[in-house]
Amino acid sequence: MTVIYNSRICRLLPSWVAAITLAEWICIRGPSASNRLLRHEARHVKQWRWFGYVLFPVAYLVGWALAGFSYAGNWFERDARAHEQI
């Protein structure tokens, strides 16, 4: 797992996106990140590992659709939020 600060990838996303995880890389928008955000994104790394690098993006999109295209309702996001405090 690698954390990339001041990620150019994040600049392509809406300003409310603080970070995005792409397989083993956690891309952070700014020069630092809270422990809570890092734990959230680290959980996404585990999700990528569980589902595999081909299946995870598909599973995430299916989860998003099943949640009515709600970020907050997506199972992967709920799971990551549950691990922010651990």
Describe the structure.
The chain is built from 4 helices and 3 strands, in the order βαββααα. By secondary structure, the chain is α+β, with helices and mostly antiparallel strands. Strand 2 (19-22) and strand 3 (25-28) form a beta hairpin. Helix 2 (35-51) crosses helix 3 and helix 2 crosses helix 4 (75-82). It starts with a strand and ends with a helix. The mean pLDDT is 95.
Structural class, judged by helices and strands? Answer: alpha+beta
Q: What letter string, H or E per element, gives the SSE order?
A: EHEEHHH
- Number of DSSP helical runs: 4
Number of strands: 3
Strand content: 5-15%
Provide the spatial order of strands within the biggest beta sheet: 1-3-2
Helix content bin: 40-55%
Q: Unreliable segments (pLDDT under 50, ≥5 consecutive)?
A: none
- The termini sit apart by 18 Å
**Overall domain count:** 1
Instruction: Indicate the mean pLDDT.
Output: 95
Tell me the Rg in angstroms. 12 Å
> Could you describe the largest sheet, including whether it forms a barrel?
3 strands, mixed
Summarize the structure.
With 86 residues, this protein is of the alpha+beta class.
